[in-house]
Amino acid sequence: MILRFVRGTPEDVVQGVRARLEREGHRTVRSPERERPILAVIGKIKPAIFVELERDPAIEARVKSDIPDLVLVNRAFREGPTIARVGSVRVGGDDVVIIAGPCSVEGREAVLEVAHAVRDAGAHILRGGAYKPRTSPYAFQGFGVEGLSQLKAAGEAVGLPVVSEIMDAADLPAFLDHSIDCLQIGARNMQNFSLLKAVAGSGLPVLLKRGLAATVEEWLFAAEYLAAFGAREIMLCERGIRTYEKATRNTLDLTVLPLMREWTHLPLLVDPAHAAGIARIIPPLSRASIAAGADGVAVEVHPDPSVARSDALQALLPGEFARLVAEARVMAAVTGRRLHPPPGP
Ligand code: PEP
Ligand code: MN
Q1: Are 84 and 97 in contact (CB under 8 A)?
Q2: Ligand 1: which of 190, 274, 316 to mutate, most ligand atoms within 8 Å of CB?
Q3: Which tens digit of pLDDT belongs to each residue from 180-198?
Q4: Taking burial as the number of CB atoms within 10 A of a residue's CB, which of 56, 93, 123, 319 is the most buried?
């Protein structure tokens, strides 16, 4: 349950309610909101205590989550949207952000070339995988730590923060050592709970992809794991789910966007590239994502997809990407938003 106090309730009153609940064995979490105190109460509240809370004039509303235990990521836990800061880029709120880069980091020069192209076209965050979750053990697995170093160097050279996928908690020190700005949890690891816990404690923002066959509830609970173990800035990213449809790699589920907006305060991103798996249909899907309310779009770019070491079919050419950004700008305006300004130093 989420307790929303009357705006301006003194902190000692909030702490009194909190102490009362904790004496009864409840775990409580105080929302970072200052003006209007909000308290999440984990677990079912005993009827006698509930009656007390109902009579408390300092508590304006008691919001029962439709999904029990889904509290920290629940819309009611925050007054407004959560803004995740990736470097100087603010994800969530009014602006729309563009994340772009190669599927895999393929070398120092190669990633630098893509970094220049996507920065010049208007991207805000540079992506690139150093640890790749490949279906075949014989496929390119990524350059690991060296890839992180190459990605970060390219990001610094063009002035963009970087995001990269972490697959193993043991690699976390390498991500921190290389000042990776945002940790991506890939679709295949959405319910790798030990990885979620480790990443949650890192202090870095987390981009959480939806699992290949995850329901919205399971996805939100994965985000709740991150929040419960200390993550503050979590972004959810729809990237297509498995269906019977074989014409595309996955099925992009934009249906969930307006619904998720009602359920959670977290920023919502869409990765149409891994959903479609076909480069030419990614621009219209990006426009549709923004129209459906996405806070950002993540795509893959390669100057020569014929030699890309992974996900060649969904790689956009730099020129195609530049057009996608121009269209995103128009689409953001149509929906009463704007593209995020270019990241500052
Ligand atoms: C990726 O972003 O490169 C990736 C592997 O994505 P997903 O986890 O969505 O398949
Ligand atoms: Mn990829």
Answers
A1: no
A2: 274
A3: 999 999 999 999 999 999 9
A4: 123
